[in-house]
Design goal:
One of its GO terms (molecular function) is nucleic acid binding. This is MOS1T transposase. InterPro entries: RNaseH_sf (IPR036397), Transposase-MT_Hybrid (IPR052709), Transposase_1 (IPR001888). With about 160 residues, the chain is α/β, with parallel strands linked by helices. Strands 3-2-1-4-5 form a 5-stranded mixed beta sheet. Helix 3 packs parallel to helix 5. The longest helix has 20 residues.
Length: about 160
């Protein structure tokens, strides 16, 4: 007998969820097989928390000591309580647009539509080839992304969404 630890996984998926992921992966594979430039047309969105702290430099933490005094100790950096959400949009060529969510603002459907409007302007300026042709939006299924207001905006602007 030996002691075995379980592997940590973020979430255990149901059979339906696994089948849906297989369907989506197969659909994306088929689209990329039919159109070799399909992956170049995708703009992906991602949100992440950015923690703010000012690390102390090595020079700033140095102190004068005598030979007999003990070595100074310094603790590891820890995340600060100050954090802000960053919404980033990127494609195969790199970052297309990013912005920080103002403090106290929650990401709702109405707010996300405003972000998508600024994204369209960024695509028009930075990726004129995507602007002239068709490009696809890829974001997760958070409530702000799947809200009716966002879906209506994307439909009005003729921006297809990849599952």
């Amino acid at each position: 007998m030996r002691r075995v630890c379980a592997n940590f996984v973020p979430r255990l998926l149901t059979t339906d969820q696994m089948e849906f992921r297989m369907f989506v992966a197969g659909d994306l594979f088929q689209k990329s097989s039919q159109d070799p430039t399909f992956l170049e047309k995708i703009v992906t969105a991602d949100e992440s928390w950015v923690y703010a702290y000012i690390p102390e430099t090595k020079m700033r933490s140095s102190k004068w000591h005598t030979k007999s005094s003990p070595q100074p100790k310094k603790s590891r950096h820890v995340r600060s309580n100050t954090k802000v959400m960053r919404i980033s949009f990127f494609d195969i060529d790199g970052l297309v647009h990013h912005e920080f969510v103002p403090s106290g603002q929650s990401v709702t459907g109405v707010f996300y539509v405003q972000v998508l409007q600024r994204l369209r302007d960024a695509v028009r300026r930075k990726r004129p080839d995507k602007w002239k042709g068709q490009w696809f939006m890829h974001h997760d299924n958070t409530p702000s992304h799947t809200s009716f207001v966002v879906q209506q905006f994307l439909a009005d602007k003729n921006i297809p969404v990849i599952t």
